[in-house]
Amino acid sequence: MESNPLTIASTGPSGRWLRAWARLALGVAAIVALYYFGFLDIRALAPLRHAPLTIAAAGGLILATLPIATWRWAIILRAQSLAVPLLPLLRVICISTFIGQVSFGPTSADAVRAIYAWRLLRRARGRIAVSILADRALGMFSLLAVTATTMMLRWGRVREVPELRLLAISLMVCLVGAVIACAALLATPSLLRLNLPRLHQYPRLQRLSEQIHDVLLAFRTRPGALGAALCLSLVIHILTITGFLLTAQSLAVGDVTLLDVAVAAPLAMVANILPFTPGGLGVGEAAFAQICRWLAPAAALPAPYASIFFAFRAISLVMIIPGAIAFVMHQHASRQGEEESYFTNKSRAAGPILSSKSSAER
Q1: How far apart (Å, rounded) are the C-alpha atoms in residues 253 and 247?
Q2: Of 182, 89, 101, 94, which Cα lies nearest the Cα of 142?
Q3: pLDDT per residue over 244-270, tens digit each?
């Protein structure tokens, strides 16, 4: 049986808590700064009080992404000959999504995913790590593809703003480069194998490269699995952006159109991944507000566009409550299991003594 992949940093719990509180303070400071400079206005959220159906619809779309994300990860795991039942995998996705929202984004979420998946399988930690890496790469690629599509639909305005034009060109270069690299590796995975001997001085990197090579071979022999996982990724982001558009339509902040929001939302979600604050708090709002101001007509007055992203974040936090419940229940079950294991081991150790004592008495 393999050892637990979780490695505790040597800095100690006090150092980790200090960094956590510092990042939380940075996130709160970013929100306060956005409010102070007029990018965020809590009063702009008032229309949501009279739009419960909009909140329910947006929340339902966000919630629907969890089973789809579970399905996508299950496809990637099965491509590596790791079969995990969907219900336990859904629980892992809910827990990791909750951790990612209240902690430091996808990095924390992926670490939690790896730990809980290893607890389910008790083996193949390398393949689990590579499956998470592949899952994250497909998710990021599809998010960038959706972003590029919306920017092309709004190209008339994008090309007029130098910053947006640079973003669009950079995005297209990244997408084309990713497609060429993936096509080359899938067509000739032996290219990666040829470079493995050069990594003998770095055994962990060599093992990771070998596992990536195996994943590429698996996807090459199962192209349908790769296509299905990519399609599910696109569906996830389309549902998320649709929920975002429903929220924006209900708030009606500023002079941007829904297409402008569809351009700004995925770009802000990419910025929201940066692990500067818990869940990207304040980072996503700032990026969204700035992009909306670039997209707004030149004569438009400044508006608190960050309020839209903030409202969407609040709805998302409500929708990850199942993840919080699953996390608490799993922690409680783990503690009970540890206690039962402890008392069982103690009773087993005491058993021979008690039996010999009773026989002596007899």
Answers
A1: 10
A2: 182
A3: 999 999 998 988 999 999 999 999 998
Separation CA 308–CA 289 (nearest Å): 9
Q: Which helix (H) or strand (E) holds 256?
A: none
Compute the distance between CA of residue 105 and CA of residue 127 in angstroms, rounded to an integer. 22
Task: Enumerate the H helices of the chain as residue ranges.
Answer: 12-36, 52-79, 86-102, 106-121, 125-153, 155-158, 162-187, 190-194, 203-221, 223-251, 258-272, 283-295, 306-319, 321-361
Predicted confidence band of residue 297 (pLDDT cuts 50, 70, 90):
confident
pTM of the model: 0.80
Of residues 22 and 177, the one with the higher pLDDT is 177
Residue 222 banded pLDDT, cuts 50, 70, 90 = confident
Number of neighbours of residue 359 by Cβ within 10 angstroms: 8
For residue 323, CA distances in Å to 82, 111, 317 come to: 23, 15, 10
- The Cα 90–Cα 92 span in angstroms is 5
CB-based contact 122:1 (threshold 8 Å)? yes
Residue 72 has pLDDT above 80, yes or no: yes
Q: What is the 3-state secondary structure (H, E, C) of 297-352?
A: CCCCCCCCCHHHHHHHHHHHHHHCHHHHHHHHHHHHHHHHHHHHHHHHHHHHHHHH
Report, in angstroms and rounded to the nearest whole number, the Rg of the chain calculated over CA atoms: 24
Out of 207-211, 311-315, 323-327, pick the least confident.
207-211
DSSP category for residue 85: -
What confidence tens digit (pLDDT) does each residue in 89-105 have?
Answer: 988 898 888 888 777 66
- State the DSSP H helix or E strand holding residue 37, giving kind and residue range, or none if neither: none
Residue 323 backbone dihedrals phi, psi, to 5 degrees? -65, -40
| Predicted confidence (pLDDT) at residue 58 exceeds the cutoff of 70 | yes
